[in-house]
Amino acid sequence: MAEVLIYSSDYCPFCMRAKQLLASKGVDFQEICVDGEPAVRAEMTRLAGGRTSVPQIWIGDTHVGGCDELYACARAGQLDELLAG
């Protein structure tokens, strides 16, 4: 299974939804919280091509984007493929 990385905030409902979807698929993921961590948020923004919102999600080397993009991948049947690596 591909490694999953999610930059998130503890108080973000979109982060919670994204993590729930991944958990429902039995996916282990590495979570990096950006709350009160401007350097970590800056690194996330750089890696995400300037996107500053959370969550920002990577599956393997693929930057999926945020919660809406993760759910769009799931609806299109692409999420399982990405997770398989």
From TrEMBL:
Pfam families: Glutaredoxin
GO molecular function (one): glutathione disulfide oxidoreductase activity
Record keywords, A-Z: Cytoplasm, Disulfide bond, Electron transport, Redox-active center, Transport
Entries under PROSITE patterns matching the protein: GLUTAREDOXIN_1 (PS00195), GLUTAREDOXIN_2 (PS51354)
GO cellular component: cytoplasm
GO biological process, one term: cell redox homeostasis
Domain Glutaredoxin, residue spans: 4-64
Role summary: Has a glutathione-disulfide oxidoreductase activity in the presence of NADPH and glutathione reductase. Reduces low molecular weight disulfides and proteins.
Sequence similarity: Belongs to the glutaredoxin family.
Protein name, per record: Glutaredoxin
Species the sequence originates in: Halopseudomonas pachastrellae
